Amino acid sequence: MNAQPQLGWIGLGNMGNPMSGRLLEAGYPVAVYNRSKDKEKALRTAGATTADSPAALVQQADVVFLMVSDDQAVRDLFTGPDGLLQAQASGKLLINMSTVSPGISEEMANLSQQKGHTYLDAPVSGSVKQAETGQLVIMVGGEEPAFQQAQPLFEHLGKLALHLGPTGSGNRAKLAINTLLGFYTQGLAETFLFAQQHGLKLEDMQTIIANGAMGNVFSKIKGEAIMAENYQAAFALKHLAKDLRLAKAEGLNTPLGEVVHDTFQQAEPTLGEEDVIAIMKHLQRD
């Protein structure tokens, strides 16, 4: 990789916007594509160019990042009529940072190889604040040389990028860590609910957690959200429900895994657009 590869970014949601912005701030030329064109405005103002389609983007970029919602969105972006693999281009590095199934990564990696491209799955752990400050943890699956090629770029996006093995390894690690996120989220909500039911002040419970072995950044932020009844989505409940479905499809069948999967599936129809900690509201209703 030369010093200044042309980068492409697809998917300008809560995470994609600050992450692509960090690459711009680092001095890389970045072209963006998003189905909702209004989301491109802030990046254009920051100096990004835009492309009319994924196919147009991959023709001008050396490295293309994707961060989209699910398997179907990935398949459409790769194989749709104006998809990445329809362009007359080869030799590009395609980095899928979406939280999707290992199977879709294995499928897209194979198709990419047939077109002369290289594919990495590289989902992240962290939320919007970590994306803004470059403190994400990046879990990478794919070929080692491709990981080494991408590493200088990952350094602008996260505090740690770890190569875990062949294609799909990053996706499997992300499903594992988001299963733990499900445990933490439901556990914290149940702890607050139990305390509330027994007349304890939530502020006191938050202080106890913060000063004990169970205290962490997540419990601080989400505990404060519960006390403020602030359920505006930093990470929408519907996304964690989807991730737990993916984990279950990969074989998650442990006792806690079954419980947290079922709880989030039940909550998704009414609370899916709210933050994951809105699971507190679901538990209060039961």
Automatic annotation (TrEMBL):
Keywords: NAD, Oxidoreductase. Residues 168-282 form the 3-hydroxyisobutyrate dehydrogenase-like NAD-binding domain. Residues 6-163 form the 6-phosphogluconate dehydrogenase NADP-binding domain. It comes from the Bacteria. PANTHER family: CYTOKINE-LIKE NUCLEAR FACTOR N-PAC, OXIDOREDUCTASE GLYR1-RELATED. This is NAD(P)-dependent oxidoreductase. It comes from Hymenobacter defluvii. The lineage of its organism: Bacteria, Pseudomonadati, Bacteroidota, Cytophagia, Cytophagales.
